[in-house]
Amino acid sequence: MTHDDRRADRRWLISLTIAALALYTLNLDSAALRDWDEATVAQVAHEIATAPQSALTWLFPTLHGQPYWNKPPLMHWAIALCFRLFGEQEWTARLPGALCGALTVPALYAIARELWPRRLEAMLTSLVFLTWLPVIRHGRLAMLDAAIVLFFVIAIGLTLRSRRDLRYSLGLGAAIGAMCLTKGLLGLCLGGLLLGFLCWDTPRLLRQPWFWYGIGTGSLPAWAWYAIQIQHYGHHFLRVHLGEQAADRLVTSVENNGGSLGYYAIELLKYGWPWLLFAVPGMVWAWQNRQFGWGRLLIVCGGGYGLIISLMQTKLPWYILPLYPILAIAAGVRLADLWQSGHTTGVPIPLTERYPRIWVWGLASLTIGLVSVLGLDVTRSLAPQPTLLTWHLQVTVFCLAMTFGLAAWRIARRDSQFILILVWGTYVSLISFVTSDNWLWELNENYAVKPVAAVIREIVPSDRPLYIVDSYPRPSLAYYAQRPIRAIAPEDLVDRWQSETNLCILAPVAVNLTQLNSDSQYPGTIMTSYSGWSVACRT
Fold first, then answer.
1. Of all helices (H) and strands (E), which one includes residue 504?
2. Which of 75, 367, 461, 494 is exposed most, by the fewest CB atoms within 10 A?
3. pLDDT tens digits, residue range 49-103?
4. Model pLDDT, residue 522
């Protein structure tokens, strides 16, 4: 590689990093932490950050004072460090994941430069990944998945480098260990896929003792952490951590999070646009070029991981995220071929072969759908009580409609400039989206937890068990209230009130808590009209 090539690569890496940081870090504090993963991760990190060093909570994490065996603590450590450095806020909880998501973009560029001598594939691969909505949305959350994707991408790059220099196997072992310290068994699964790729592409490498020595040495921190947990807790830790929280997800639907065999195909169809149009033919092209390393990599890692998560009985939307870097490479190589075929002389030239019609109809359908959304919004504005999109969302929908419409028109004219239109239009639309207050739309599906947590902190004694009348306990409410909260059904109120002393019950004002005094022999104090909530404490 010449000096000019290295300088051009540095410019691209810096530009991609800046563009990714803008998408991943803007407006992180505009939304409360989401239930389940976000709130749980933040609570564990809070207990690590606030516990004295002598308690060794950083080594043996806890959740509301109880041992936390669900996931290893690598990302919890990073979030706890941010809490200590910058204070405990939403943006500090989300910052480590956002940085991991942003750094994955230049890491993908480096991988593509390893796979192809041309820079074009690397540019388009990283730009596709940069502008993919599901990756950005989950990368901005205080979850573990952005870190897993980053470590997986780094492991792919080090696997490719190890084929010509065994010293990189040390880094490969460290990357696999980092995945195991983030999501346990998933790290072994992804590492196994990379070894499967080497078994097909470079089998001689697996016969080298120094290769295995590097992997073993690099992953020592992960094995040391697991050994310490087993020594401290015994084999009960393994039964819960690797059994109930990991292996059981393969064969059972944990916490009723199940789905059909095509669950993740539907997820791609819901959120994979517009790049899914090019990733699918890119994967087909990889199969046709399976004699090359890049084709084998996409087949083993993409096909293998897709098969694993499809066969798993537990289905959650973010399990698909490690598949997106593979699909981005597939889309990037397909788009690079289209761009090169239309610019062989340095200027755009007409193509003699038409692009697939499904690309035109797919983008046109998306355009019609987005225009319909804007039209319905205008119609609602005339209603007596209009429910309108925010101006941020209006700008986002308008930009996407213009982008997809122009791209469809360019594809119909056999003009490879549609690639630039899709990249820049989608990026501008996503900037508008993440700067709105609606980028985490799940929060609108239930009541806001911060006002309720303020009620709990103000009037509910901290030394009493607290129940909330709800269908399920909300970890985000427990995090903001800084106390464990259990859910209870309305029909179980009286029985719980009679059987447990010294408890408090929180309920919406629509639930009549005064019945507890009339239906039970145990009196209590009923307080109402606190931001639409009532509190009953047994006296």
1. strand 504-508
2. 461
3. 999 988 899 999 999 989 999 999 999 999 999 999 999 999 999 999 999 999 9
4. 67
What angle do the packed helices 304-311 and 263-271 form, to 10 degrees?
120
pLDDT tens per residue across span 135-153: 999 999 999 999 999 999 9
The angle that helices 74-86 and 37-50 make with each other, rounded to 10 degrees, is 60
Q: Are the C-beta atoms of 264 and 315 separated by less than 8 Å?
A: yes
Alpha helices per DSSP H over 343-417: 357-380, 391-412
C-alpha–C-alpha distance, residues 521 and 188, integer Å: 57
Q: Do 281 and 335 touch, CB atoms closer than 8 A?
A: no
pLDDT value at position 385? 44
Q: Are 69 and 115 in contact (CB under 8 A)?
A: no
Helix 418-434 to helix 324-342 angle (10° resolution) is 140
The predicted model scores a pTM of 0.93
**Residue 316 has which token pair?**
């959650």
Q: Are 483 and 452 in contact (CB under 8 A)?
A: no
Q: Do the beta carbons of residue 184 and residue 177 sit within 8 Å?
A: no
Side-chain half-sphere CA neighbours of 534 within 13 A: 17
Q: Which DSSP helix (H) or strand (E) runs through 5?
A: helix 3-25
Residues 6 or more apart whose CB falls under 8 angstroms from that of 487 comprise 467, 468, 469, 470, 471, 472, 473
87: left (phi over 0), alpha (psi -120 to 50) or beta: left
Q: How far is residue 44's CA from residue 68's CA, in Å, rounded to a whole number? A: 8
d(CA 487, CA 469): 6
Residue type, 501: T
pLDDT digit string (tens) for 463-477? 888 999 888 888 999
Q: Is 384 helix (H, G, I), strand (E, B) or coil?
A: coil
- Which H or E run contains 495? helix 493-499
Contacts by residues 48-52 (CB-CB < 8 Å, ≥ 24 positions apart)? 48/73, 48/76, 48/77, 48/80, 49/80, 49/81, 49/83, 49/84, 49/88
Q: In 130-224, which ranges are E strands?
A: none
Q: Which two tokens stand for residue 14?
A: 């810096």
Tell me the pairing of strands 524-530 and 504-508: unpaired
- Report whether 189 contacts 141 (CB < 8 A): no
- Alpha-carbon span 315 to 326, nearest angstrom: 20
Specify the long-range contacts of residues 231-236, CB closer than 8 Å, at least 24 apart. 232/60, 233/60, 233/67, 233/69
Q: By the 8 A CB rule, do 48 and 55 touch?
A: no
Token digits for 464? 């009493």
Instruction: Report the alpha-carbon distance of residue 341 to residue 386 in Å, rounded.
Output: 50
DSSP one-letter code for 205 = G
Q: How buried is residue 33: exposed, middle or buried, by Cβ count under 10 Å (0-12/13-18/19+)? A: buried
Q: In the numeric block, which tokens belong to residue 412?
A: 């119909």
CA distance 200 to 113: 21
Nearest CA-CA partner of 120 in 322, 341, 327:
341
**Identity of the amino acid at 291:** Q
Tokens of 227: 């050994």
